[in-house]
Amino acid sequence: MNQLRQLQSDRDQDREELRSVREELCGVREQNLTTIDFFIVRASTLDEWAEDRDPIWDDDRNDSVHGGRLRTDVKTALYYEPMEPERVSRWKSLFNHYYGMPFSSIVEIIGTLPDTVVEVMNRRASVQRMKVWQKGYNQGRRSTILRLADKYIQRFSEQGTSGLADESVKCDFRMLENTWERGWWAAAQEKQGS
Fold first, then answer.
1. How many Cβ atoms from other residues are within 10 Å of residue 175's Cβ?
2. Contact of 152 with 179, CB cutoff 8 Å
3. Spatial separation of the C-alpha atoms in residues 121 and 155, rounded to whole Å
4. How many Cβ atoms from other residues are within 10 Å of residue 158's Cβ?
5. Which of 1-5, 20-24, 47-51, 57-61 has the lowest mean pLDDT?
């Protein structure tokens, strides 16, 4: 009788381990699908940038989809490169225009790029592409963000993270962020007035 109980206990334990492994595999599969799905979305955005075509939604563009997403765009390019090298070559040629630094330079340092630099580059790309920043009420803010972003990226390129510690650079970063927030606030006000 004890042997039977032990066998049942072992079976139950094996079932629980199997269930745990299945759940873990489902989670990994779901995470991979989510990542691949996001690569597909970003690939579409990069195609949009490369062909300089307008998206269907002119004014209601989602910043996380149509704006700058540096780390994801690098991963998307690396994911697609073995399958579609010509397409990826077009994407890579856009990085300097949108992110302020060539793809070849970014890919070498993407793993160690400070979050603030990534954020500035994302803001720069968003301002370059998104229609909300082309509108008359945001053109001055757009120019300010591009000027500050270029200055910040250049400082980082020349001096690394030590160049970002200067108080004037920190002040420029805060000004860029404030200008960004005011631009989105102005867009929301404009939309409410329509």
1. 13
2. no
3. 13
4. 8
5. 57-61
Q: How many CA atoms lie within 13 A of 60 on its CB side?
A: 3
**Within 82-138, where are the H helices?**
85-92, 95-99, 103-109, 115-129
> In terms of DSSP H, where are the helices of the chain?
2-51, 63-66, 70-80, 85-92, 95-99, 103-109, 115-129, 139-159, 167-193
Q: Which two tokens stand for residue 130?
A: 């998104």
What residue type is assigned to position 86 of the chain? E
Position 163 scores a pLDDT of: 92
Give me the sign of the Cα torsion angle 26, 76, 142, 54.
negative
- The token pair that represents 139 in the structure block: 């053109």
Please indicate whether residue 11 or residue 31 has the higher confidence score (pLDDT): 11
Distance CA 157, CA 155 (A): 5
Neighbours of 105 (CB within 10 A): 13
Task: Name residue, tokens 């199997």.
Answer: 18
| pTM across the whole model | 0.75
In the numeric block, which tokens belong to residue 60? Answer: 């209601």
Rounded Cα gap, residues 142 and 144, in angstroms: 5
